Amino acid sequence: PVKVWNAREAEAREGLPKAEFFQKYGFVLLNRKTAMTAKDWNASAPITLDISHFTGIGMPKGVETPVTHVYAKEVEQIVRELLPDAKDLELDPYCA
What we know:
It is built from 5 helices and no strands. By secondary structure, the protein is mainly α. The model has no long low-confidence stretch (mean pLDDT about 85).
């Protein structure tokens, strides 16, 4: 059997800032709004809707989509907040 813990309770119990909780446990629950709309997600969808969606294979290469110029920047900001000491950050804008 696998025991599933309530992450929200764990965060509340620990009382750590988000970045510290992330450093300690390797994950954190974030409530963030995105500038992406349903139309943006559809415009950024891969050609196929299978495992390639998670690998970037099938994504339109060299084509700017809302994922590459809106969502990737939002993800980068979150990662930088959680890992403030990171000097170099490389995110695949097609798999943000």
